[in-house]
Amino acid sequence: MFSLIQSLPGFKLYLITRSYSPITIHNYLTSLVIFANFLNNPPVNQITQADILNFFEYLRYNHRSESTIQVYWKIIRSYFNWASDEFHLQRPDNIPMPQPAPAPVYPFSVEEIHKLTKACKTLRDKAIILLLLDTGLRVSESARLTIKDVDLETGTIHVRPWRTGKKSRPRIVKLGNSSRRALWTYIASRNLDNNNAPLIATRDEKPLDRYAIGNIIERIAKRAGVLNCHPHRFRHTFAIFYLRNGGDIFTLQELLGHASLDMVRLYLRLSSTDLEQTHRRASPVDNLRL
């Protein structure tokens, strides 16, 4: 029987045939090597449920978060999805998924949004900020957009599925007037004759990946003096402002591309709390001391 590490090339091939991204494959294999080293690289058919639970406790002892342990749980589950068929094993991974506490969600304030837009030095800077804020797109989704995906006349963006479609569901999202103007100005400044060109690009029209866009946002935030500014915070802000302004959770779920309502319900709770706090500060009756 193969040892865990000896089996990894076969698992890698399985991931490739399932259209997993190179980054995901690298992360899966690296995590499984850590798991194998913890167990002293046993034969695959000798791994037990107790081994997996002990590994999770080892991660907790080393101050790994429940979110990180959940990622390892998913990777180990994926591995045994393959290994149980490949080696005809009885699966040892029938373990409930660790449940991390929801990460805190902090939308940008109106003041922070104004600071970010004022700190934009280029047309591309402003296009990125308004695109993410007005659509709630994941930064990886915005990085994959091409010119032909955007219809500025109708204010619609066609988000295409990525690989398996699990993380990036196909959908239509909308742009407001200010964002449409910012994108039109940015696109027009590039004198393009190719609709397949990336929507967000380098000066020599090469596509920017999510890390490059993240670096641009980091530089804008530094100039603006806005702390904890990362691409996903724009998505949180879009969701909470959408609900605060009267949007419904089912449309928001569709716009965000979520498979379930779990995250959307969190946004709803946050927006409701936000409205309650605003009313306490602005209540006409309370402020008039009637």
TrEMBL record:
<comment type="similarity">
    <text>Belongs to the 'phage' integrase family.</text>
</comment>
<dbReference type="InterPro" id="IPR002104">
    <property type="entry name" value="Integrase_catalytic"/>
</dbReference>
<dbReference type="GO" id="GO:0006310">
    <property type="term" value="P:DNA recombination"/>
</dbReference>
<dbReference type="InterPro" id="IPR011010">
    <property type="entry name" value="DNA_brk_join_enz"/>
</dbReference>
<feature type="domain" description="Core-binding (CB)">
    <location>
        <begin position="1"/>
        <end position="84"/>
    </location>
</feature>
<dbReference type="Pfam" id="PF13495">
    <property type="entry name" value="Phage_int_SAM_4"/>
</dbReference>
<dbReference type="InterPro" id="IPR004107">
    <property type="entry name" value="Integrase_SAM-like_N"/>
</dbReference>
<dbReference type="InterPro" id="IPR013762">
    <property type="entry name" value="Integrase-like_cat_sf"/>
</dbReference>
<protein>
    <recommendedName>
        <fullName>Integrase</fullName>
    </recommendedName>
</protein>
<dbReference type="InterPro" id="IPR044068">
    <property type="entry name" value="CB"/>
</dbReference>
<dbReference type="Pfam" id="PF00589">
    <property type="entry name" value="Phage_integrase"/>
</dbReference>
<feature type="domain" description="Tyr recombinase">
    <location>
        <begin position="103"/>
        <end position="280"/>
    </location>
</feature>
<keyword id="KW-0229">DNA integration</keyword>
<dbReference type="InterPro" id="IPR050090">
    <property type="entry name" value="Tyrosine_recombinase_XerCD"/>
</dbReference>
<dbReference type="GO" id="GO:0003677">
    <property type="term" value="F:DNA binding"/>
</dbReference>
<keyword id="KW-0233">DNA recombination</keyword>
<keyword id="KW-0238">DNA-binding</keyword>
<dbReference type="InterPro" id="IPR010998">
    <property type="entry name" value="Integrase_recombinase_N"/>
</dbReference>
<dbReference type="GO" id="GO:0015074">
    <property type="term" value="P:DNA integration"/>
</dbReference>
